[in-house]
């Protein structure tokens, strides 16, 4: 599928493998990474991609997966399979930890059944065989050592060893103290030599103590002697330890025999751990790359959106250098081969390698650093000609190596082949290399191959411009700053900017002039045209950007206008509503006046003089209404009343209600926050009159007496059973208002159960009441949901 074999290395895929291996926890997982190869079956690629994607989501958004102890079970299982073999303590302990990890992983996904459908395929319905773990736990303790009570014999031997050690130590201490009393010992305490406890004795006294000399000090002044009294006891302990070791081996052999029937299952557990470690490593690598899963396409096509070269991206993060410029490219049945031209070091090769490397990653089941809207097809073959493959052993020059690859490409390429060629046609005389490259390109195009090719040859640019299936592209270059922009532009070829770059580097002007004279007139015109096109393209791009910014500003302005219009409409409706309410009040007063007038006329039996007098009263009342209205219309809005400026702490009277209170705060928009006892209200400064000292004192006394009356009369419980909804809500509102005024924390509302209609209306009303913070039912024993407690903030 890949030709030549070293193309994987040249595209950077081997480095990707190494980075993924660093994320693995086990050697088996790392070995699996080494085996990653691009696949050609769509369903297999889709499954691998989805598993990696699901593991990425798990790592980012779910609880941590329990992978504390991923040990290789396979070599242990292979050892268990051998008759007569047994697992050592440390080997058995590693198997125990690995099995616990396996079971925790299986439980983890069982608890999330259906959430990670493709990851669940890794398990192949593996059971949790608890008997294996229980058998091992009967033998090993939590430190991985064989339990002293693993068998009756082992327990007896251990007890005897402990008893003998205590007796030996007791006798040794007695001999040591006696030797110290006699002045025979050297400095220091008891020490161990050759695994036996010994007493340090001065060399001149070593014959005075009966026993076995195990060692001497470097100076020969101290001898380490095991006393005769404890020698036989120590030998007994050593024999007991041999007995214990034999019993431990017997127990380990027995437990190994118990595990032997489970070898196939143990190998399956090993496979699960390996695959989990492998997919986890791919997911961690995807998180580092900020990679996504692209859309898989059955067709041999590529549509990369905001794609970045993985290795360049990771290096930019590590070095904290400039961000990698994203790549946007599309290869399909219409534009099969993209011919990329442009300046040296402008990003042509990086563009081509990005396409090739991301294609290899996708077909290997790896997520790619590109927008999730990207679409990637599946190619049966990937051919690449990158770099210098000259070989002394094979007697191949650079150009010969290129031609041998072209031979393979033209022979075996087809419509499902991705061809990647860097610096097409170079390595020989351009006069001949160009036409040969053009002929090869024409042959590949006839075979419907897909690919990305970079070149500087003008004849190839011209050929691509009028050949169906080929599409010119260029890497943008900033003419003013004389530096590449690393942005791929599809649709036109690019200039090599050879003279411009040479001029920037500082090559002498006379040399450049001479070079310009030597190149063909036609070639000079083509290159100049390309430079001009590049400049025009940049101007158009800048203009489009300016237009886009202007359009955004217009959209913002339109949004602000519509919002302002909506506010004006809202204010208009509010003004009309208030005007209607005032008109209702005026009509109400007028109706009342008329009714009283009619009553008086009837009472005086319509005497002429008396009727005229009553009519004058009506006219006078109407005149007073008119005068009040005109006065209100003429009165200018003021932040300060005529009787002095307002300050926090002043007492004022609200003109339209007659209420009196203290100013707590003056806001920026010339409104006042006034305390009316326990209540707070907000009014305009133009609607209040500042009280004088005497009026202030009266207002305080009046307010305190009113508050006291309210408090004394207040009862925080209201019974509305049997009432209609409007009547009940009115009564509840009165109690709530008083509770808020005096600062009472809650109100008890008895509404009964019934059909629940009254309860529903009452609770809907309470939820809309500004000062109600929460609602609770009464205790079930005392009425339950037939009583509601409204808590006030």
From TrEMBL:
<dbReference type="Pfam" id="PF00488">
    <property type="entry name" value="MutS_V"/>
</dbReference>
<comment type="similarity">
    <text>Belongs to the DNA mismatch repair MutS family. MutS2 subfamily.</text>
</comment>
<feature type="coiled-coil region">
    <location>
        <begin position="533"/>
        <end position="635"/>
    </location>
</feature>
<keyword id="KW-0694">RNA-binding</keyword>
<comment type="function">
    <text>Endonuclease that is involved in the suppression of homologous recombination and thus may have a key role in the control of bacterial genetic diversity.</text>
</comment>
<dbReference type="InterPro" id="IPR045076">
    <property type="entry name" value="MutS"/>
</dbReference>
<dbReference type="InterPro" id="IPR036187">
    <property type="entry name" value="DNA_mismatch_repair_MutS_sf"/>
</dbReference>
<feature type="domain" description="Smr">
    <location>
        <begin position="718"/>
        <end position="793"/>
    </location>
</feature>
<keyword id="KW-0067">ATP-binding</keyword>
<dbReference type="GO" id="GO:0004519">
    <property type="term" value="F:endonuclease activity"/>
</dbReference>
<dbReference type="InterPro" id="IPR007696">
    <property type="entry name" value="DNA_mismatch_repair_MutS_core"/>
</dbReference>
<dbReference type="InterPro" id="IPR036063">
    <property type="entry name" value="Smr_dom_sf"/>
</dbReference>
<dbReference type="InterPro" id="IPR002625">
    <property type="entry name" value="Smr_dom"/>
</dbReference>
<feature type="binding site">
    <location>
        <begin position="342"/>
        <end position="349"/>
    </location>
    <ligand>
        <name>ATP</name>
    </ligand>
</feature>
<keyword id="KW-0175">Coiled coil</keyword>
<keyword id="KW-0255">Endonuclease</keyword>
<dbReference type="InterPro" id="IPR005747">
    <property type="entry name" value="MutS2"/>
</dbReference>
<keyword id="KW-0378">Hydrolase</keyword>
<dbReference type="InterPro" id="IPR046893">
    <property type="entry name" value="MSSS"/>
</dbReference>
<comment type="subunit">
    <text>Homodimer. Binds to stalled ribosomes, contacting rRNA.</text>
</comment>
<protein>
    <recommendedName>
        <fullName>Endonuclease MutS2</fullName>
        <ecNumber>3.1.-.-</ecNumber>
        <ecNumber>3.6.4.-</ecNumber>
    </recommendedName>
</protein>
<keyword id="KW-0540">Nuclease</keyword>
<comment type="function">
    <text>Acts as a ribosome collision sensor, splitting the ribosome into its 2 subunits. Detects stalled/collided 70S ribosomes which it binds and splits by an ATP-hydrolysis driven conformational change. Acts upstream of the ribosome quality control system (RQC), a ribosome-associated complex that mediates the extraction of incompletely synthesized nascent chains from stalled ribosomes and their subsequent degradation. Probably generates substrates for RQC.</text>
</comment>
<dbReference type="Pfam" id="PF01713">
    <property type="entry name" value="Smr"/>
</dbReference>
<keyword id="KW-0547">Nucleotide-binding</keyword>
<keyword id="KW-0238">DNA-binding</keyword>
<dbReference type="InterPro" id="IPR027417">
    <property type="entry name" value="P-loop_NTPase"/>
</dbReference>
<dbReference type="Pfam" id="PF20297">
    <property type="entry name" value="MSSS"/>
</dbReference>
<dbReference type="InterPro" id="IPR000432">
    <property type="entry name" value="DNA_mismatch_repair_MutS_C"/>
</dbReference>
<keyword id="KW-0699">rRNA-binding</keyword>
């Amino acid at each position: 599928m890949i030709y030549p074999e070293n193309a994987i290395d040249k595209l950077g895929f081997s480095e990707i493998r190494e980075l993924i291996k660093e994320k693995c926890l086990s050697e088996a997982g790392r070995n699996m990474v080494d085996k990653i190869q691009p696949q050609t079956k769509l369903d297999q690629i889709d499954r691998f991609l989805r598993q990696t994607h699901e593991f990425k989501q798990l790592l980012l958004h779910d609880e941590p997966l329990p992978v504390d102890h991923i040990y290789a079970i396979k070599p242990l299982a292979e050892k268990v399979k051998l008759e007569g073999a047994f697992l050592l303590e440390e080997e058995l302990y590693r198997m125990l930890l690995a099995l616990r990890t396996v079971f925790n992983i299986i439980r983890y996904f069982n608890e999330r059944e259906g959430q990670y459908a493709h990851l669940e395929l890794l398990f192949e319905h593996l059971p949790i065989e608890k008997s294996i773990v229980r058998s091992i736990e009967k033998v090993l303790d939590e430190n991985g050592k064989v339990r002293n009570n693993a068998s009756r014999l082992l327990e007896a031997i251990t007890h005897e060893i402990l008893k003998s050690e205590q007796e030996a130590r007791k006798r040794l201490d007695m001999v040591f103290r006696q030797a110290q009393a006699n002045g025979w010992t050297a400095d220091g305490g008891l020490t161990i030599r050759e695994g036996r406890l010994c007493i340090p004795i001065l060399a001149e006294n070593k014959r005075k103590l009966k026993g076995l000399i195990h060692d001497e000090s470097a100076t020969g002044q101290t001898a380490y002697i095991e006393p005769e009294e404890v020698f036989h006891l120590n030998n007994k302990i050593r024999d007991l330890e041999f007995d214990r070791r034999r019993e431990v081996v017997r127990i380990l052999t027995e437990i190994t025999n118990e595990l032997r029937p489970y070898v196939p299952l143990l190998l399956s557990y090993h496979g699960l751990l390996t695959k989990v470690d492998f997919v986890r490593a791919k997911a961690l690598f995807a998180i580092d790359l900020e990679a996504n899963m692209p859309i898989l396409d059955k067709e041999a096509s590529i549509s990369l959106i905001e794609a970045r070269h993985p290795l360049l991206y990771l290096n930019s993060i590590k070095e904290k250098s400039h961000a990698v410029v994203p790549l946007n490219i599309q290869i399909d049945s219409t534009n099969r081969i993209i011919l990329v031209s442009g300046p040296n070091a402008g990003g042509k090769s990086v563009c081509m390698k990005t396409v090739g490397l991301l294609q290899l990653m996708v077909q290997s089941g790896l997520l790619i650093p590109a927008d999730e809207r990207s679409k990637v097809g599946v190619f049966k073959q990937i051919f690449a000609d990158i770099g210098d493959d000259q070989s002394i052993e094979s007697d191949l020059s650079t150009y010969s190596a290129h031609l041998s690859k072209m031979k393979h490409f033209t022979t075996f390429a087809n419509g499902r082949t991705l061809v990647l060629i860097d610096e097409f046609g170079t390595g020989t005389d351009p006069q001949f290399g160009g036409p040969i490259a053009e002929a090869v390109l024409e042959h590949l195009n006839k075979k419907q191959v897909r690919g990305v090719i970079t070149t500087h040859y003008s004849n190839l640019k011209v050929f691509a411009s009028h050949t169906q299936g080929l599409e010119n592209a260029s890497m943008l270059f900033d003419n003013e700053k004389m530096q590449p922009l690393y942005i791929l532009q599809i649709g036109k070829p690019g200039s090599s900017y050879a003279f411009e770059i040479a001029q920037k580097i500082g090559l002498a002007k006379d040399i450049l002039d001479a070079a310009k004279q030597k190149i063909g007139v036609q070639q000079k015109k083509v290159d100049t045209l390309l430079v001009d096109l590049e400049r025009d393209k940049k101007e158009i791009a800048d203009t489009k950007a300016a237009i886009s910014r202007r359009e955004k500003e217009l959209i913002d302005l339109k949004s602000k206008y519509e919002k302002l219009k909506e506010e004006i409409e809202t204010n208009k409706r509010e003004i009309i509503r208030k005007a209607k309410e005032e008109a209702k009040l005026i009509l109400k007063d007028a109706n009342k006046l008329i009714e009283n007038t009619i009553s008086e006329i009837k009472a005086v039996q319509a005497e002429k003089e008396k009727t005229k007098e009553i009519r004058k009263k009506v006219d006078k009342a109407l005149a007073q209404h008119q005068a009040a209205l005109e006065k209100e219309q003429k009165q200018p809005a003021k932040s300060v009343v005529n009787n002095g400026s307002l300050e926090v702490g002043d007492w004022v009277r609200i003109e339209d209600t007659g209420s009196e209170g203290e100013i707590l705060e003056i806001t920026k928009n010339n409104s006042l926050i006034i305390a009316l006892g326990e209540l707070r209200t907000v009014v305009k400064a133009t609607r209040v009159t500042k009280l004088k000292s005497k009026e202030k004192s009266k207002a305080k006394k009046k307010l305190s007496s009113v508050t006291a009356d309210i408090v004394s009369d207040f009862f925080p419980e209201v019974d509305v059973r049997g009432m209609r909804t409007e009547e009940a809500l009115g009564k509840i509102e009165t109690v709530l208002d008083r509770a808020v005024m005096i600062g009472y924390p809650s109100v008890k509302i008895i509404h009964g159960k019934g059909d629940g209609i009254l309860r529903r209306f009452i609770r809907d009303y309470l939820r809309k009441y500004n000062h109600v913070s929460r609602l609770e039912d009464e205790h079930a024993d005392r009425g339950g949901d037939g009583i509601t407690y409204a808590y006030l903030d």
